[in-house]
Design goal:
alpha+beta; 5 helices
Length: 193
């Protein structure tokens, strides 16, 4: 049964595929779409198939407490094609093709990463909806139609479980020109609570 406030994309919106944010702070640069290691080869293959140049960087690394750098990767990230880190390279912004809701089309929609399938859910405690999502801004919190997004998020969370002693985050070095003095790149160890 359809709820009165089921989630759906807002007419002509492609914002979640265009705008990237600094995370966890400006120092780390803008993040890309989270790509699990099991998804990486498929995404690279799809880019080659479509003749699209992509940049995939590490995102989350793991190691034991004595390591000075990660010894394993829990997640990668697909960076945006714009110099400032925005706009997914698979988003078709050049043709007249449009999605059913009128936004730009995704060239790999049926094969998009799990992270794209979770949107607008944000992994946090408690689970939240992205406040920057236009649906949430215009219609409030959705009260239905998020089961597949939740299932995708559960898959990501189970892939990110680790017994490793040290977690690392990769700073992309990518962002707005005005922020270049603040942004760095490379691996940074995170404190584990």
């Amino acid at each position: 049964m359809k709820s009165s406030n089921d989630f759906s994309c807002i007419s002509e919106c492609s914002q979640c595929c265009i705008e990237r944010e600094y995370y966890p702070s400006k120092k780390f640069g803008k993040i890309g779409v989270l790509i699990l290691p099991r998804e990486k080869n498929k995404i690279e293959s799809l880019a080659k198939e479509h003749g699209i140049k992509i940049t995939v960087l590490p995102r989350i690394g793991i190691s034991d407490s004595k390591s000075n750098e990660p010894t394993g990767i829990l997640a990668f990230q697909l960076m945006g094609k714009d110099a400032n880190g925005n706009t997914c390279p698979f988003l078709d912004t050049e043709s007249d093709s449009r999605s059913p809701h009128g936004g730009f089309t995704c060239k790999i929609y049926e094969n998009r990463p799990l992270a794209c399938r979770t949107y607008p859910l944000i992994e946090s405690t408690p689970l939240t909806i992205d406040s920057k999502c236009k649906f949430c801004q215009e219609c409030g919190q959705p009260d239905g139609n998020l089961q597949s997004e939740l299932e995708s998020l559960i898959q990501i969370k189970s892939s990110m479980n680790t017994e490793s002693e040290k977690i690392w985050r990769y700073a992309t070095g990518i962002g707005e020109v005005d922020d270049s003095d603040y942004i760095t790149n490379g691996w940074f160890a995170e404190a584990i609570d």
